[in-house]
């Protein structure tokens, strides 16, 4: 098994395999306040994965624990390569042989340390985040329509406004609805959030707009 970062066709192989690799996965949600029915969560798809592991760059090559010698680099040179990857705006490909891990990534965190009695060796902690190309579909396209369900439509049709310091319902009505006289329409939809006094809205409250 080997751990490799590829910049185009140029491989950078880690000389010592880490003892463990942690892969973090999670799912995103957006919370929307729906009229008088309270809050609803809408799934937003899988979040970007994080891959973390720790290892070290040895000063001297030792075949008992080091990988292919042809990829062996001086620890300072190896750290410079990782630092170059860290500031690069181009994704790399991270591959763990003999597994299903073969993904485009960015290096988002790189920490190094030295230990007494191990002169020349450099230890490091590395965090990678998987990269996905952003693809935006045309609004109203057949593909978008086929993927849209009733719950998605509800989310899109429910416009909200976050109260800021100095706001009032009449000010929000003028800004969002074109007439300050429509403040009562906003209050009716958000009475449970605002309370009995329509003049006591608070910064940070999310109001559903008509």
From TrEMBL:
InterPro entries: Bact_Kbp, LysM, LysM_dom_sf. Residues 159-209 form the LysM domain. PROSITE patterns: LYSM. Coiled coil: none annotated. Pfam families: LysM. SMART domains: LysM (SM00257). It comes from the Bacteria. This is LysM peptidoglycan-binding domain-containing protein. It comes from Paenibacillus amylolyticus.
